[in-house]
Design a protein that fits this description.
By secondary structure, chain A is of the alpha+beta class. In chain A, 31% of the residues lie in helices and 21% in strands. Chain A folds into two domains: 2-39; 58-137, Lrp/AsnC effector binding domain/regulation of amino acid metabolism (RAM) domain (Alpha-Beta Plaits, 2-Layer Sandwich). Classes of the chains: A alpha+beta, B alpha/beta.
Chain lengths: 159, 376
């Protein structure tokens, strides 16, 4: 199962036939594992990494540190949920250190992101403070460098 | 000394566009960054000098640990290990140090292109021993024994093998060890592909009972750690033999580049995970290319080592040289004719699968088209 998931994580478009060959299994076996993983939400979704800068798509990303007053019995989960339900949030992590939630927000303009922080995020009862960092450049996303994998400069033929 | 058999193809490819080359002999990964960074750090820190002729003692100590933990072999870093400029230099040193004029060196056919020329340059006579697909291209002890003469000095082993991808397991190697013992022969074991074995453990020849004292073990970093350009290899063996290799080495090369040695040290210390990932990736590609070649009608035995598939092209009726040239011109896929690696390589071509999966699949599709026109 893990081997199949690793291959899919690296390339969502790989076919069950390819996976079967690469791992020396049958196609039916592979398909069954994938169906099960999908049903159990082990495979959450198949997505694509896109370098929007190249399409000329205007957009801003902000990484926001959020300090939170945890709630009795619920810890951070309830506040986290209230935050991640906003479609503006791209990812939400609970972290150790000086602040509690690391929130990645995506918006069309800086004003839009600033507005989200000022009007939605910061005023929440349990939120004690926020620090917003606008991202200036994305170099590597989900393990992939946007410039492309570095390939060795090999001779076309060698013994 | 014949010219390299692939120069013609090299020139052809260089003049063409859109070629998919399965004719390479090195990884398609760049050196793992932590290893490359150690070399860069070395240069920044002023490690730009000679080292001991034997190589950095730290590197030899780490190598000794590696051989101990990997194969249970004990080598003294001070006297039994020599760091060389790639395994190529180690091979040349070993042959020059042990072969006297007129002495014979037994070697598998097909095998790596340097073995015969280096034996000749050392004044020796190469004695190729045919290996065949039916025996999975393993060197057969009986075939070796039949070719022994009073002049036989050494057996040159090369498993996992370039170009066939063949491996020899412990049982196979024990038979060769027995021949070497019975006839008091040296064994030069080129194990440059030792990390690249699939679904089995590599057996180091020197680790067999009684083999260490008559074995010069050759290895290196190029293939396992994707470090071909760094040029670091090694020889391990009894102190008197390593001393002999070192004498040639000190007057010709002096030492391997220090920054490369520092990178190699990092590779041994922390490179295991990177190697594991690359081996896993090669294994996936191996299964794809072997299955694909068999499906398009080029019967291909299942190689368990290195990164080469060695399919038979007999179904086409072409010589391996014609096959490679026409495949290149007609479908822009480069492979290496088996005859480059010895007489027994005729009828086969070497396909390197250190190439991305989409490229392998495209190459297979082009070869399928080629075969549909050219199969008898």
């Amino acid at each position: 199962m893990k081997e199949i998931l690793k291959l899919l994580e690296a390339n969502a478009r790989i076919t069950p036939e390819q996976i079967a060959t690469m791992l020396g299994r049958t196609v039916a076996e592979v398909e069954q594992v994938i169906r099960k993983a999908e049903a159990e939400r082990i495979i959450v979704k198949y997505k694509t990494i896109i370098n929007w800068d190249k399409v000329g798509e205007e957009g801003v990303w902000a990484f926001i540190e959020v300090k939170i007053q945890p709630q009795r019995d619920r810890g951070f989960d309830e506040v986290a949920e209230r935050i991640y339900r906003f479609p503006e949030t791209y990812s939400v992590y609970l972290v150790s250190g000086d602040y509690d939630l690391a929130v990645l927000v995506r918006g069309r303009t800086m004003q839009e992101v600033a507005g989200f922080v000022a009007q939605k995020l910061a005023p929440m009862e349990s939120v004690q403070g926020t620090v917003t960092h606008f991202l200036l450049k994305r170099y590597k996303v989900d393990g992939e460098t946007l410039e492309g994998e570095e390939k060795p400069k090999r001779l076309p033929l060698s013994i | 000394m014949p010219p390299s058999g692939i120069r013609k193809f090299f020139d052809l490819i260089s003049s063409m566009e859109g070629v998919i080359s399965l004719g390479v002999g090195e990884p398609d990964f760049v050196t793992p960054w932590h290893i490359a960074e150690a070399g860069v750090f070395g240069i920044e820190q002023g490690y730009t000098t000679y080292t001991s002729n034997y190589g950095l003692l730290e590197l030899r100590a780490e190598l000794a640990r590696h051989l101990r933990e990997g194969y249970g072999l004990e080598y003294d870093p001070a006297t039994e290990l020599l760091i060389t400029v790639g395994v190529s230099e180690a091979l040349d040193l070993a042959l020059r140090a042990v072969v006297n004029p007129g002495e014979e060196v037994i070697l598998p056919d097909p095998s790596y292109v340097s073995y015969i020329p280096c034996t000749i340059l050392a004044g020796g006579n190469p004695v190729p021993v045919p290996t065949v697909e039916e025996e999975e291209f393993k060197l057969q002890a009986g075939e070796v024994e039949r070719r022994l003469t009073e002049h036989t000095k050494a057996i040159l082993l090369s498993y996992p093998n370039n170009p066939t991808g063949a491996v020899m397991d412990k049982t196979d190697l024990l038979e060769i060890a027995e021949v070497a013992r019975r006839h008091d022969l040296l064994v030069i074991s080129d194990e440059i592909y030792s990390h690249l074995v699939y679904g089995m453990e590599h057996t180091c020849f020197a680790s067999l009972p009684g083999a260490k004292e008559r074995t010069i073990l050759l290895g290196g970093f190029s293939k396992s750690y994707a470090m071909t350009g760094w040029r670091v290899g090694f020889a391990a063996g009894p102190p008197e033999l390593i001393e002999a290799l070192m004498r040639v080495h000190q007057y010709t090369i002096m030492c391997a580049p220090i920054m490369s040695q520092m990178a190699a040290l990092e590779a041994l210390r922390h490179g295991e995970e990177a190697v594991r990932k690359m081996v896993e990736e090669y294994d996936h590609r191996r299964r794809i290319i072997v299955k694909g070649l068999n499906e398009i009608g080029l019967s291909c035995f299942n190689p368990k080592g290195a990164f080469y598939a060695f399919p038979s092209i007999r179904a086409t009726g072409l010589s391996s040289d014609e096959f490679a040239e026409r495949l290149l011109l007609e479908e822009k896929v480069a492979v290496v004719p088996g005859s480059t690696f010895g007489e027994c390589g005729e009828g086969y071509v070497r396909c390197c699968y250190a190439v991305s999966i989409p490229e392998i699949e495209e190459a297979l599709e082009r070869m399928r088209r080629f075969l549909s026109r050219n199969c008898r």
